[in-house]
Specification:
Elements (H helix, E strand, L loop, with lengths): L2 H10 L4 E2 L1 E6 L5 E6 L2 E5 L4 E7 L13 E6 L5 H6 L13 E3 L5 E3 L4 E13 L2 E13 L7 E3 L2 E3 L6
Antiparallel strand pairs: 1-11, 2-3, 2-6, 4-5, 5-10, 6-9, 7-8, 9-10, 11-12
Bound molecules: flavin mononucleotide.
Flavin mononucleotide binds next to strand 3 and strand 5.
Length: about 160
């Protein structure tokens, strides 16, 4: 990595984000998922969100045209999930219970929010793809605080005094 690339990456790390696990299904119905912080709300009407996925993502096809995916927004107690779903060659669903809605994609339990999306469009974005999802169903939990990511580390929300 060049000095310039490191400075770019470090600068991006100054943007505090939430953390999600995006789940989907392979064509053979095997559940897949990965940690994603590049998530953004896009439109209220129609209800659209977007995620940015590295083109080298192993289960990329699960999230693209004609597919469904779920954005599971993690709570502060779910740092282990965030790490597990970013681990290469791990059995990410081992010991994990989840529910399913209409699409059959895993809805992870105890999250801050879950959004079930149908893939609406996919756009090129350098070494990533911008995947736009139309939200079909969502829920959120009142008493869960967010897991954050800042400066390359997980963090929590501090109350302003
Ligand atoms: C906090 C955090 C945020 C991440 N955000 C993204 C992201 O927005 N997009 C992405 O493609 N990968 C992101 N990753 C990396 C993927 O989760 C990781 O590369 C994962 O192994 C990809 O799944 P795969 O191994 O099945 O290809 C993130 C990892 C962490 C720990």
């Amino acid at each position: 990595m060049t000095e310039c690339q490191r400075a770019f990456r470090d600068a991006l790390g100054r943007f505090a984000s939430g953390v999600t696990v995006v789940t989907g299904l392979l064509p053979n119905e095997t559940p897949v998922g990965m940690t994603v912080s590049a998530f953004c709300s896009l439109s209220l009407s129609p209800p659209l969100v977007l995620i940015c996925l590295d083109k080298s993502t192993s289960a990329l096809e699960s999230y693209l045209d004609g597919r469904w995916f779920v954005v599971n927004i993690l709570g502060e107690a779910q740092e282990d999930l965030a790490s597990a779903f970013a681990e290469v060659d791990a059995d990410r669903f081992a010991g994990l219970t989840y529910e399913t809605w209409d699409s059959g994609c895993p809805i992870l339990c105890n999250c801050l929010a879950n959004l079930e999306c149908a893939t609406e469009a996919v756009y090129p974005g350098g070494d990533h793809l911008i995947v736009v999802g139309r939200v079909a169903r969502s829920r959120w939990a009142k008493d869960v605080r967010p897991l954050l990511h800042y400066g390359g580390a997980f963090a929590g929300l501090a109350d302003k005094t």
